[in-house]
Amino acid sequence: MDEYWMAFKQAVIETVKETMGCRRGTQKERWIRDPTWSMIDERKIAKCRCEQAKADPDKETTAERYRQLDRAVKRSCKSDKKTWLECKGAKAHEAASKNDNKMLYRIVRELTGAWSNSSAPIKNKDGVFLLTREEQDACWVEHFKETLNQPTPANTYDFGATPPPPDLVVNLDLITIEETKVAIPSTQSQQMLFKKCWQDQSVPSDWRKGVIVKLPKKGNTDDCNNWRGITLLLVPGKVFCSILLRSLQHAVDEILREEQAGFRAGRSCSEQIYTLRNFIEQCIEFIDFKKAFDSVHRGSLWKILRAYSIPQWFVNVFQNLYISSSCCVRTDDGYRLLQHRNQSQARMYPVTNSLFAHSRLRHEKGDDESSDWNPLDKWISSH
Asked: Which residue ranges make up each domain of the chain?
């Protein structure tokens, strides 16, 4: 599977390079246009000839040529930057007229260079400031390692004691190109790649690797708990998961309760929020859901999927997505690798969120003897 994926990946990269080419310069030089880059190359060649010239007439000729190209490059760069700034100003004016504050402030930050500093000093568990990059990187690795690697629950529900329910009526045929196009504008090569992943019940190892990016939340930024870690994954793996989720969505929606509105298409939690506010006016209770999604036990989740009549074929594919999965933390100096996640479950596909929220809602109903009691609720109640 990895060889098939690498061949597909290399073919896409080479095709994109031949068709679109590579952008030159750094992020700060993105306003320079291609004609100016060509003039810069000519100036570089002229400078080399000027330095290599030995005779006096040749030196004067090459030096004059270099000075002419240098003046032309400076004029062209000045014109390019002026054009780029005018274009950005027009886009900012248009965003302001449409009350699009997100785009407006993005352009302002892009022009002013006012970006938040993610390398501010942080504290360790003892409250001591860490000033060196090595200490800060080690602290971030330890923080996300503890967040993602939760211990195995002491008590788990015995799913084997309950007779397995019949599988949901879900299409188990090969992934078609129409299903791929629904998830993302696709090509025949991607459809063949997804079809092979489905047949082999395995995915490339690159799809199991993620990069954790730190985003500040409200509160003191010297505390690691006030930062949110977002895992960046490869787009083909996310598209593949979206295809699987769309195949399951219709069948799963039929067994979900009507009260379940979160993590469902075309539904809103507005009424539930209004009801919750009325309850809060009568009593106040704190429930910590801060890192609930990142601490779902993997082994139990596969059994939960079967308890919800998800076909075993889907369970095998989902399970393969997390075998030997790993992440690395992106820092200012590069990337720091985390150990493999052992038992915790990150939100790599949206069905995890839906099952978790539905489980909590069913558990809050309470009665163990009710007719719609599910083994998943008993497992939740033991944690």
From this structure: 25-112, 122-255+292-381
